Amino acid sequence: MSDKPSIARLFFSFLRLGLTAFGGPAMVAYIKELSVIRNKWLGEETFKDGVALCQSIPGATAMQTAAYVGFRSKGIPGALASFIGFGLPAFILMLILSSLYDRYHAVPSMMSLFNGLQVVVVAIIANATYSFGKSTFKKYKDVILATAASILFWAGVSPFIVILGAAFAYVYWDGKGVVAASTFEKEIQGHGFKKLLILLLILLFGLLMLYLMDTNLLNLAILMIKIDLFAFGGGFASIPLMLHEIVNVRGWMDSKTFMDGIALGQVTPGPIVITSTFVGYILYGLSGAIVATTAIFAPSFLMVVILTPVFDRLKSSVYFTNATKGILASFVGLLFFVSIKFALAVHWDIFRMLIGVAAFAALFRKIDVLYVVISASVASVLIF
After folding, report:
1. At what angle do helices 275-307 and 215-230 cross, to 10 degrees?
2. 3-state SS assignment for residue 331
3. Most Cβ neighbours (<10 Å): which of 62, 294, 356, 379?
4. Residue 299 in contact with residue 228, Cβ under 8 Å?
């Protein structure tokens, strides 16, 4: 491998990559090109281990992979540099779009635009459901768990309970396992244990300051942390959790506004979970956007830093791997429910049906989602 990169080089390398980070998990291939092939910061096997880790824990896979590369290269400071650099363009652009939406969404031309984009959101979530199902369904029990999750969600059961139930069910069905004995603190010595403690203390201090300053922002932060901790399977897994908590439980916004936020998230680089920036801005302005975005990415980052040194032991546990399989199966069911929920919120006519079918077909054929959204936007303004 070549010399380790500086903190500044990690930040600006991932900032540049983040400017064009469309495609969600597909960006992992470009991160590999940057870190393994072009600059040789990591070896092939080390990078593969990182991808396996990021696919096994909750959070946006590409963002976590960026953090993993930085962590392996320069410890916790490197992880922060690459993680922030990669996500910053998406945050800034989403902040601008959220501000424009808040100011102009009632203008007729903007209403026409989002009338078409709602249909694209349905197609995006439906395609995500298909993709999740195709990669997840290996055994009959996967289908059973997905179906049960969808029914329970429809019945009003909290998705967090559904997810935990699916994890326990799969572990019960599929046998036992053990994790090789290890001392956690010993494993992460040399990987910045004191720095990790400082990060955790900063997070707790931030929550305390929100408690003292504005309990509304504190509640928003805690909710986003909770969502990220359960979002196994990548950014799309956060959508049913956000829908349940933000629209159904708290009523902070209606389904249409939430769908508009998802649509805006698809024209920005970065993971779909950047919708959190939109939610925070619409609720509490700039401070809400900063708090929501920081809170929904903080757990993902910390899990990469904490689990990277012990992942070899963790992945040897059948308990861990089976629980993950159960969780992913439940998310297929939850995404299926969200697809139906969003579809019912659309006022269908022949033009919307045509846009929806065309968008799904394009996504199914692996056409970049950015092109699909832009094409639908143009069609919406011309038709509606």
Report:
1. 60
2. helix
3. 62
4. yes
The whole-angstrom separation of Cα 338 and Cα 241 is 10
Amino acid type, 176: K
Beta-carbon count within 10 A of 313 CB: 16
Residues 362 and 179: beta-carbon distance below 8 Å: no
Comparing C-alpha atoms, which of 56, 10, 54, 52 is closest to residue 34?
Answer: 10
Where b means 16+ CB within 10 Å and e means fewer, 259-272 reads bbbbbbbbbbbbbb
CA distance 35 to 44: 10
Q: ∠ CA(59), CA(123), CA(126), 5° rounding?
A: 60
Contact 237, 311 (CB under 8 A): no
| Nearest one of 196, 203, 204, 183 to 71, comparing CA atoms | 196
Place of tokens 């249409």: 256
Among 14, 42, 12, which residue's Cα sits nearest to residue 27? 14
Contact call for residues 383 and 127 (beta carbons, < 8 A): no
| pLDDT confidence of residue 328 | 80
Over the chain (384 residues), the average pLDDT of each successive run of 10 is 81 88 69 87 85 81 91 91 93 92 77 76 84 81 88 84 86 60 47 67 83 89 92 79 90 90 81 91 95 93 85 73 82 85 84 89 83 82 73
| Gap between the Cα atoms of 354 and 311, Å rounded | 46
Q: Where is 354: in which H helix or E strand? A: helix 350-364
Q: CB–CB of 207/221 below 8 Å? A: yes
Q: Report the pLDDT value the prediction gives residue 297, as an integer from 0 to 100.
A: 93
